[in-house]
Amino acid sequence: MGDEVRIVEVGPRDGLQNEKTPVSVAARITFIEALLDAGLHTIEVGAFVSPKAIPQMVGSDEVLRRVGSRADGEFHVLVPNEKGYEAARAAGATVIAVFGSASEGFSRANINCSVAESIERFKPVIARARADGVKVRGYISCVLGCPYDGEVKPQAVVDVAKVLWDLGCYEVSLGDTIGVGTPKKARELVRAVAGYVPMASLAMHFHDTYGQALANLYAGLEEGARVIDSAAGGLGGCPYAPGATGNVATEDVVYMLEGLGVATGVDMARLVQATNEISRLIGRPPLSRVAAAWNAKKRAANRE
Ligand code: HMG
Ligand code: MG
Asked: Of the residues 113, 142, 169, 238, which is catalytic?
């Protein structure tokens, strides 16, 4: 692979937004600090969305205020509308992410409007952010399939990607929200979107429901994409994407990249420690295969 790959750690947001067990603001801050200490730099730390829709993200202002002072990180937060933008700015956000969809069904379920209406909502948010010197990332969900509408055509993704890019997003993240993609489709999608959004500005955000996320990422890397969204421990999911499991695990991504000769700067021992601690708090073992192997090896060594 050779060149650099950037990891966007989404565990504190995507990872925790769907968890039934409440995780306190203090524990979320500790988790983010542990991820920074493990060498992750770009971290999505919260969401300024309706507390009725996603109660798990209440307190994102406090989280951002606390971790935002650390100079060794870049902190992202989700913002769906101007109300969210104002709250995010008041908490010191310097990077926000708007989130749309390639499919109508998910757009309606997730943010209560059509795809076209969502773009109209994003326009003033992006304009204000640009005027304030705030960077804007643009997510597109359901790029490889929708839980409500089924198949999603690459052109539908390209159409939304073009709009987000033209409005001024610095990066477009392609979300396989329900983790149904396979490498051929992932490759074709990356190629299609890269016909408009520069490859360097494309991120791959793949959930792992069908166990294809790493393979899909590898296909995208071969195509030239260099930004990967992942969540420590394979945490993640969206309440509006029924049946979907977590994001690809950061540990598994790091292990694959290092094996490909791509230095990540991540300390695996510290990352697994951060994952173990958050897994303990939410009461279930990590989905990451690498974390599971690492923990098993450690237990075996302790028995010797
Ligand atoms: P709406 O009902 O159309 O909005 O929701 P509204 O403007 O009519 O407001 C309704 C209520 O929400 C009002 O409160 C507003 O004040 C409040 P009420 O008068 O009923 O008490 N409200 C807000 N409160 C706090 N912050 C805000 C805000 N906006 C309105 N920003 C809305 C529209 C988008 C707000 C709502 O549907 C929502 O918050 N949805 C959350 C969706 C979400 O966070 N989903 C998970 C993240 S997306 C994801 O996981 C996919 C991704 O990972 C990529 C992938 O995997 O594909 C990114
Ligand atoms: Mg997601």
From this structure: 238
